[in-house]
Amino acid sequence: MKILVTGNMGYVGPVLVRHLRARHPDANIIGFDSGFFGHCLTGSELLPEARLDAQYFGDVRTLPKELLQGVDAVVQLAAVSNDPMGNRFEAVTDDINHRAAVRVAELARDCGVKRYVFASSCSMYGAAEGGPRKETDALNPLTAYARSKVATERGLQAMDRGDMVVTALRFATACGMSDRLRLDLVLNDFVACALATGEITVLSDGSPWRPLIHVVDMARAIDWALHRTADQGGGLLAVNTGSDQWNYQVRDLANAVAEAIPGTRVSINTDAPPDKRSYQVDFSLFRQLAADHQPQVTLAKAIAGLRDGLEGMNFRDAAFRNSQFMRLKVLERHMAEGRLGDDLNWIAS
User: Fold this and answer.
1) What is the pTM of this model?
2) Is the pLDDT of residue 275 over 70?
3) Domain-by-domain residue ranges, the chain?
């Protein structure tokens, strides 16, 4: 099996490639990435891309069709990957997250690719009251990032997919240790705060709901989608990907981290205006379809893994929100030093 992973040099990619290499040692796995975050290694003893058969560099908006020749499956991770970046680069977010993703799917279909896996997001539910959201419930995207995921799913639905099996995994919020760790994710941020300052400051009133999924379990879900057949959910499937047990309120996450890292104080801004990005998610369809690929990492293990990983790096940076752990800061630094344009294209030097 030959698998192309776009955006493989981000947060999820190294964990996914390690999982696929372990589970499918004979697979031909290739990566395609812009390289924005290639230098942001965190505690890795080897370059994660050493596990690949080949690494290619380029902009996913202009991914060459030739690269898809002989490919059996595509995993589309490439994206402007969170709300702060989406707000800063709104038009580019649509170009990369939506238009490029649909274009790659169309090229893949034309080249005879059998599986296309899109990393979608539960954030498209936005402000959702009245219980956990199912796939059939209304969408309410509140940010450019969430809107781009909705637009991609609609584009995939509208296109002629031929015989290609397409899976949009609506992932819960990612968390956990990675070879390219991000700390602009809620649980990861809380653990970093606890270690660096001894205090977790919750900027909201702590009540918003967030479903979470460990990055290792994201890899397991992608592995399932790479082998899913049309009789397991249809030729096009959009499925909430996570676990009902991982629906948490933000204050509960903060308190769980404080319990795991003794001496941590939790400060909650009870006077904060409500954070509208609050939603619980129903993962029963994923549980039904992917019984052997259900999330296995617990919240306690996720926190312990982050704590141990950061301590192993001697992490004590109280100013980490201005560091390479924050993806927007990395892009802004590239731009400030004249390497990257506002359109997120490299500038020739």
Assistant:
1) 0.96
2) no
3) 2-336
